[in-house]
Amino acid sequence: MLQVREQIDHHTTVLALTGKLDRQSTIGVEALIMGAKEVGYQHVILDFSGVIAIDSVGLGQLFLWYHKMKPHHLRLSIVNPSACIRDVLELSHIPDIVPIYTSEQEAIRQKNPDCTP
To answer: What is the CATH number of domain 3-115?
Structure first.
C-alpha cells in the first residue's frame, strides 16, 4: 500500500510517497498529478524518500505522467530516492526525462527548458 502526503508551495505541489509504487497504487497518484494542471500548478515533485519498491508498472507510469504533463508545460521531478530505487530508475532511463534531485529545494531552483512556455 502506498501512502501519499501532499504539500503545496505556490505553483509547486510535493507528493511525499511512502510504500510501494506499483500497479495497485499508481491510480491515486495519477489523479493527484493530473489534477495539478487543473489547479494551476507548474511543478509536481515526487518525494521518493519513503518509496521502498517500484515495479515495471510504476516505472511505466512515470513515463506516461511525464508525457501527459509536457504539453501543458508542467514539470515533473523526483527527489530523495534511496540508492536502490535510484539504481532502478537509472537502469530504466527515467532520469533522461524526469530529473532526479537530492532535495525539494534543489528541484524547485532548477529550470526545465523543455517545459517553459
So the answer is: 3.30.750.24
The pLDDT tens digits for 72-113 are 889 999 999 999 999 999 999 999 999 999 999 999 888 654
**Residue entry with cell 493527484:** 32
Query: Which residues, in sequence order, are bridge partners of residue 15?
Result: 6, 46
Position 93, amino acid: H
For the chain, the distance separating the N- and C-terminal CA atoms, rounded to the nearest angstrom, is 36
What is this structure's pTM? Answer: 0.90
Phi, psi of 41 (to 5 degrees): -70, 150
Q: Give the residue ranges of DSSP H helices in the chain.
A: 26-39, 56-69, 83-91, 104-109
Burial (CB < 10 A; 0-12, 13-18, 19+), residue 68, is middle
Which cell numbers in the block locate residue 54? Answer: 517500484
Which DSSP state fits 111?
Answer: -
